[in-house]
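Hey L., structure's done. Input below.
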Amino acid sequence: TILDEDALTAWLRKVVEAASISILEGTPECIEITRRVKGGQRYTFYLNYSSEPVCVNLVSPGTDLLGNREIKGDWEIIP
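Output:
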């Protein structure tokens, strides 16, 4: 079966929900969000694959490891 975009999206949403994976609505397609756990600490990485800065709503407050500053809410992710 070849699904159109709407049908594929609906099917993938069911697969993702069955796997207990969080869906972050409204995240631009150029942003990849990855979570890692090490030594009991949870890290969330935001990667911008576009050529321009993109503003995203962060999953939770945290620390920008590149700038060593606290961040929360809407944040500009540079490429």
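The mean pLDDT is 90. The longest strand covers residues 31-38.

-- N.
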